[in-house]
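Typical record was shown:
=====
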Amino acid sequence: MIDPLVLLAFVPAALALNLTPGADMMFCLGQGLRAGSRPAIAASAGISTGSMIHVALAGLGLGALVAAVPGAFDAICWIGVGYLLYLAWGAFRHGTLGAEGPEIAALHAFRSGLYVNLTNPKVILFVLAFIPQFVDPAAGSVLGQFLIFGAIISIGGFFINAGVGIFAGGAGRVLTGTPMAARVLGYLSGTIFAGLALRLALLERG
């Protein structure tokens, strides 16, 4: 059983982290501009799902193992860079995805959000650095505590990132009245994805 006072300390800390602009928020912004509000919400759900997978692995001790093996860490990082560049190329080449069916666009966005989160090894390090500060082995299952704390972060992140994506989707819908505007939004979202890839690559080199 987690101490209620620990939860009271954790929730505002998690909320502050969720509100801090970062790669997940920028990714949902790019998805909203490119594909609309519904895919942006799906992308946020994919990111939160990936976060819970990271949390579960950390709680099982596998996250520490990956972080301790430089080769595995680097491989995951560069896969993430490659996938983000792939998304950027698609945005530059095809522009917005207004012609794609909403169900297909949402499915693609969920999968993209999941892949982007899972291939960001920095999330593993964050989970290992932040959540254990609040875990008390004497309070019960360590994995259970990891999952509870991770769920708080993931749920909060879902609503905040989805809100950003909805805003971007509304703005994109207003601006996609002409092919030129749709192309510009495609370039903008592609630039966001490419920038995230560069950020991940530079962090990996550091």
The chain has a mean pLDDT of 81. The longest helix spans residues 142-175. The chain has nine helices and no strands. Residues 34-205 form one domain.
